[in-house]
Design a protein that fits this description.
single chain; 4 strands; alpha+beta; four-stranded mixed beta sheet; 9 helices
Amino acid sequence: MGEVEVKLLGSQTSPFVRRVQWALKLKGVSYDYLEEDVHKKSPLLLNYNPIHKKIPVLVIDGQPIAESLVIIEFIDEMWKHNPILPIEHYERAVARFWAKFIDEKLANAVRMALVSVGEEQEKAITESIESFEIIERELFKEKTLIKAGEDIGYLEILLGSFCIWLPAVEEGAGFKVFDSNRFPLVNKWMTQFLELSVVKEDLPRRDLLLSYFQQIRHFVLATRK
């Protein structure tokens, strides 16, 4: 494969961007990183992702690819070494099922808890906790699905990116969904994941994340008065 020009449009506050960065790092792919202002979308972002107008966007020789799950699969297919998704077809299908659960159930519930108030927020918090209960009970009972060593893959990238941001979301918005005593398997895995070289070498600044989520929460409360 010849040299290709790789660019990534992202934000340090986005767990979805971090997923793509880890995938590129695992593949040893060099790229230019372009920081986007999430509050003021640039003409470049609007040009490359006119439908969703969101980060991350991976640009390969001028051709854009949007949505983190799509991008990761593209990266895995374009650069075959160090596979990210499972090789075996059934395991790959199972990994995609859990990826969908993490994004559509857990991440969406936590996002709703961040941007809602009252009964709506309480419902979102309950759904977040229930999602963690399912992950603790079902995902972590099968040790072949998610790993704790340096050989991380698809599900580790997805769940790990979310778990790094969760404490800042909880503190910034003043609610709690994750209890380490209630979810000991997830907690143990998270602790080990944060010590991985590919992860700890470039963790997002906590003060930056906290400020970002506090701003979102303050805006939500101000508009609900």
